[in-house]
Each structure stands twice: as structure tokens, then as C-alpha cells.
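Lab notebook: predicted structure, single chain.

Context: the supervisor wants predicted structures on file for every construct in the current expression panel, including those that have not yet been purified. This is the next one on the list. No modifications to the sequence; it matches the entry in the shared construct table.
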Amino acid sequence: MTRYLRDIFFALAALTIFVAASPVQAQSNSGPLRIEITEGVIEPLPFAIPEFIAGSSRVEDAASDITRVIAADLAGTGLFREIPRSAHISPITSFDSPVQYSDWQAINAQALITGSVSMEGGQLVVRFRLFDVFSQEPLGSGLQFVGDPDSWRRMAHNVADQVYERITGEGGYFDSRVTFVAEEGPKNARLKRIAIMDYDGANVQFLTDSRSLVLAPRFSPDGQSILYTSYETGFPQIYLMDLGTVRARVLDSQDGFMSFAPRFSPNGRSVVYSLETGGNTDIYLMDIASGRRTRLTDSPSIETAPSFSPDGSQIVFESDRSGSQQLYIMSASGGEARRISRNAGRYGTPVWSPRGDLIAFTNQQGGRFHIGVMRTDGGEERLLTSSFLDEGPTWAPNGRVIMFTRETAGADGAPAIYSVDISGRNLQRVSTPGMASDPSWSPLLQ
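Prediction complete. Output recorded below exactly as produced.
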């Protein structure tokens, strides 16, 4: 992307919230200007996206829908602001026609997105171009996505990911999915099912029935399977489901043992989880292929909610070994653990960022629950939310947004999924067909 638009973007929308304390630095002429911003966002970057040009009447609806989804993806981040089409001065009538930059400068559009949709050989073809309006330059060459007509929504997310990446310099997160627990019924007789949806709440699919209590679904690193806890046998056991076949099997079938809080290792070949035996709960590692278990903690306290670092070398978990729930990090092979939570309250449900730089967690203090983030050494802790009940964070694929469960005070106690960025801004409810909890964000789809 051009330096002009990038500098404007970072001056208006700070994506890097946690950086080493240092003054603003300007490098020599041999390298690009780099600005490190440690404060919050001031104003979203304004962009214009005229409706994509339909190559025929067959794709008019698809062109309109794709344009709408791209705009919603970008505006939903809180980093971008769409300029209404009613303010557009000149129409885009051809995908290849020159851009009249002065018309877009007049309405203060800093980025312009144009595109076309056509049907070729039974496949839907989506093309797009991105322009830096004030420097009057295209941001790279145009791209196209080809797929089945039913995959139009994914192609829209792909376009939005590309726009996001070219303007921010970081990966997007729109072409991803979320698995969660869908809930229905009164609080004292709640029915729960594992479900999956696009990150924005579209295309909901139910993966289990409501005959058994299910908890905490978690995506595999390749996004092709999930782990979850089920009470189908009368006590908690971990199940592994292949999303292609929607078939599940018990991962640890030894009767009398309660297993829960599972997560995949970064390579997807093993699972770290909690196992309760004889009244004691410790963390174990299981090789999925062989079923071999390795005990990682050995303490009379409760150790649970383990999560791998992205490189697979360490595990963060919660433990009450100090007398209250706190966060600890140990080697992925077990051994001595060091405490990283230092501030007030109780800490739980830690999750390592896919970027490797932060750990998200739940904090309880003063009768309130919070979602927070801290450095992996426990430093620079920030509480991002505050509510009657906020818990269970999960990271977007790019490590910039967190989803979590929020439950409001009241008789019904209806849970819902919310998202917030790592600056604590842009708190919003995620669309679901009903009550929802325990979200887990997938990696970007392939």
C-alpha cells in the first residue's frame, strides 16, 4: 500500500496497542517512516464502496449482497467508516474505467473499493480493486476470487480480508468461523447444542442435539475438527468431532474419569486437558493417534483451562495453588510453573494469542467480571470489559479481536456472544439465532 494512506490509517486508527514504551521514531531515508502508537483510536478511516458491477442480470443480487457484506466486514471493525452511497458524486459504470479521484476526494473518501461480479463457466467470479484516493494510486493490482455461486459470502469475506490487509499491513479475520454452545429454554432447564457459524453470525449449523449437556467447543489448528466436553455418559468426557462428517468419538474412554477443558496443540496432533481422578484435578497431554497420556502437573490444587503458546513450547493455565484462581505458565512438557497474574481478583480461562504476544483471560473482582489481556510475563495488564458476567475469551485469527460470553443480570440470565478489540474499543454483540455461549474462533479458512 502507499505510505500516504498507511500513515493516515495509523494516525487515525491505532492497531498496535501493546508496544514497548518508546518515543515516536522516524527512520532514515533508506527505510519507510514508522510510527508507533500507544494510545487509542481517534477516528475510523472513511472508505467508499459503490455497488459492484453485475456482469448480467443473473448475478445482480449476488453483486449487491457481496458489496453489502464487504462494507459490513470493514465497518464492523470500528477501524473503518463507510461513506453512504447517497453521498457519492460519480457512479462506477465499468470495472476497468479510470477513477475520477477528485469526485472521491470531494466527499473525503480516503480509500475506494470497486468491483465486479460475473458468471463464467458456471462459476461465480468476483473481481475488486482498491485505491488510495488522496495519493491517486491503486493499492496493488486487482484480485479475483472464483467459486461456486453458493460461496458468494466467503468470496465477500476474502475481498474484505484483502482490503484490510492492504490498508493495515496485518492479516484479516473475516473468512473464519466460530463454534459455540447454542442455548434455549429456561435457566433451570437449559438445553445446549454445539453449533457453528460464520464469524459474523451467518450460516448457523447445529452439530449436536440437545439430549446431552455439552460445553466448551474448541477448533483444531486446521479448522477441520473440534473438541468439546459432553455429559452423554453421565459425567464429563472429551469428544473429538470431524466437521466434514459431523461424527464424534470419545477421546478418553476410561470409565470413572472426568475429563474436560480440552485444547489442541498447535500441530493438531495432541490435546491438553484437565482430568479429575480421586478428587484431584491435574493437566494431562494426550497423543490423539495413540491415546497415550502424559501427566503435566502433580498438585493437590485444581489445575485447569490449559492453552498452548503458538510455538507449542509453553502452556498457560489456571490454578488455585496459591489459595485463589491465578494464572501460571509452564513448559509444554510439564515441570515447574511460574505465576504471571499479579493484580487484584481471581483469574481464569487464559488463552494465548495467535500472535504469541498476549494472553487473554477472565478476571473477577469487586462483584464484576472482566475480559482482559496481559503480556506473557504478566506485564501491561489491561481490563477490556466490565459486566455482571463476562468470561471465556477466544482470539480472532489475527490476534486483534476477542469474542467472549456475556450474561446480564436478571431472572432469565440469557447469555450472548460479544466481541471487543484489544484496545477495549468497539464492544458489540455478535449475531446468533438465540442464546449463545462458549465461543471458539477458527483460524482463517483455506
